[in-house]
Amino acid sequence: MHNAPPVTYPVGRSRFPGVLSLSLWVLGAVVALLWWIGVDDHGWRGAVIALALCASGVVAGLGWWRTPTAELHWSGDNWSWTEAGKTRDGAVATRLDLQRWMLLAFEAPGASRWLWLERASEPARWDDLRRAVYSRARPQPLPEAPPHAARP
User: From CA 63, how far away is CA 117, in angstroms rounded?
Assistant: First the structure.
């Protein structure tokens, strides 16, 4: 079996989770509006719903907007993540594969990160990335184990 070739893929703000978050927020706003129309006495509940709706929109928007720009590297042996000149080695696991978009979990010692990757970021390297995600790393030889002491 041949291993996937080395590949570097750009990671940044993906439109897919942005559109998904916006769609869910709009759905929540429509439900809140329908509740508002159907209830005669809004009282404090209306203020809480409006505040929660605004806060959730701000948190979702800022989370999407602050998505870091970085690169995901597959060397043929291991994965690494480079952001702002700092590189971390780790492992990648597929969480969702929609062919044109992938949600990956990058696990590094002391940190983990969810990555939304999309084909539109680098169409020429998308297939190489997919091969790397689904390939296994080259097997490493097992370290020599010390011989077991004989039991009396």
Answer: 16
* Pairing label, strands 79-83, 86-97: antiparallel
- For the chain, the domains span 7-13+69-134, 15-65
Handedness of CA 94, 12, 64, 29 (dihedral sign): negative
Q: What is the pLDDT of residues 45-81, one digit of tens each?
A: 888 988 999 999 999 889 888 888 899 999 988 999 9
Please write down the long-range contacts of 45-52, taking CB distance under 8 Å and 24 or more positions apart: none
Residue tagged 């806060």 (tokens): 55
Look up residue 137 and give its two tokens. Answer: 């790393």
Q: What is the dihedral of CA 125, 126, 128, 132, to 10 degrees?
A: 130
Residues in the chain: 152
CA distance 104 to 63: 17
pTM, two decimal places: 0.70
Distance CA 63, CA 57 (A): 10
